[in-house]
Design a protein that fits this description.
Alpha-Beta Plaits, 4 strands, 4-stranded antiparallel sheet, alpha+beta, 231 residues, 9 helices
Amino acid sequence: MPEWLDDAIPLETTHHASVLVVRLLLALFFGSLVAAVYRLSHGRGKADGAALATTLVLLCVLTAMVSVVIGDSVARAFGLVGALSIVRFRTVVDDTRDTAFVIFAVIVGMGAGSGHLLVPTIGIPVVAVAAFLLEWISPERAANSSGTAMTSGTVVVRLGLGHAPEDALNPVFTRHTESCRVTEAATARQGAAIDVTYAVQLKESSSAPSLVTELNQIEGVQNVELRMEAA
């Protein structure tokens, strides 16, 4: 290494290139295992399942790189927190289990990057068993095994200003859906209306046309769009 580079980077904070390569390759391997657990447990039936699986692998490797950069330096840790705080993400995570796998990938990447390989080695099998067990006893699987079709989708309702979405829409969603939660809200028509996006799961006794028809009959509703998820 050139002398000027030695002066710029103190020796006590550097790692041999071979160590860095091994740690990043291990992070890639562990990240692939995390993505596999995600896909096999509950990510197969999702439209964005493959994209999130890829994100989990990359996130694991990137977190390992961050852990290597930080090392034992508290100053660098605070510096990276300040630098990364400027990043803003607007993608809404529909399933809270996806958030758990994102945190899982971060922890595994930290373990691989810091050299604590026992953490991902033991943690991945334990989390995998928990994920498969919880997926096996989940209400959705129980409903499917009993022959009850659980139809899920996304509903986008456009309301004129002056109409509260909760008061106007919740009674209809209560009659037609097993579960309903707001995933996104945004203004439309230059602020004259609001678009509210819901993740819904229809009841067996209901149907997509009946839900859309009843929503359209509500005063203040300007447009309703229902996108069903692929089975």
